[in-house]
Amino acid sequence: MRLLQNFTIRMVMLTILGLFCLLWSGVGLYSVHALSEVSEGNDIDRHLVRQMTVLSQGNDQYFRFVTRLSRAMDVKIGGGTPDFAPARQSLENMRQKLEEMKALSPGPMNPDISREVLSNWQALLEKGVVPQMQLAQQGSLTAWSEHASTVTPALSRAFGASAERFSHEAGAMLDNTRVMVDGKTYTIRILLITAVILGIAILIFTDRYLVAMMVKPLERIRQQFQRIAQGDLSQPIEALGRNCVGRLVPLLRAMQDSLREAVSTIRAGSDNI
């Protein structure tokens, strides 16, 4: 504390407040930046989850189409009247999911993987599912059976493989985002705890500084005035540094010396009388 006696209280307090503001400004700026990255990561997560949901729904509609069309063909083979409406509805749903996936792509996903999924999905729809539906309704059973057992399964496997790669890549990206979010959250927590501890330390230091540089020196000056008021001019006050309070000491000493000289003069005059 004695090192600060020669600095003005205003300058020291401004320095302390500046350090306090700098501390919390740094913590605040980093927190805002980190939370912005977390928000971006959450946006990526939501987009990927939406893409994976649409992809899963499209794949589900394909299997629904195959199942419903097979049931209709069993009825047709048995000589009954097949109902192709459920299979047609699954086909349309699959087409809608493909268009929705196109609108969402590529997003945060690797463009090559996204293009591969869309290409294989489109091929499965146009070269596999649609012709299979047409053959079931208008073609011979042999042509439909051959197409359903050779062409469509190959296209389905290609689409399934690309969908698997898409899901694997999306899972890795989601894991990376979670690691990033956890890391940023941990760092922000540590920074806030550290800033609170440093803030309390600065508060305690400020209190001790004000006590040492203002409260106690002013109390000494008050006691010195009490001694002067009681007529004791023999005890000079000690130096208190060159800060705002310490600059009062030379004036107080000069006043005390002046009073001492005046008292001495009065006593000398009284003795002469």
From TrEMBL:
Q: Does the keyword Glycoprotein apply?
A: no
User: What's the chief localization of this chain?
Assistant: membrane
Question: Might you report a single GO cellular component term?
Answer: plasma membrane
Which InterPro entries does its entry note?
Answer: HAMP_dom, MCP_chemotaxis, Tar_rcpt_lig-bd
Q: Which UniProt keywords apply?
A: Cell membrane, Membrane, Methylation, Transducer, Transmembrane, Transmembrane helix
| Biological processes, Gene Ontology terms | chemotaxis; signal transduction
Chain ranges of the HAMP domain: 212-264
Lineage, top-rank taxon, reads Bacteria
Which is an annotated GO molecular function term of this record?
transmembrane signaling receptor activity
Q: What compartments host this protein?
A: Cell membrane
Q: What is this protein called?
A: HAMP domain-containing protein
Q: Does the keyword Membrane apply?
A: yes
SMART domains hit by this protein: HAMP
One Pfam family linked to the record: HAMP
Q: Which residues cross the membrane?
A: 186-206
Family listed: Belongs to the methyl-accepting chemotaxis (MCP) protein family.
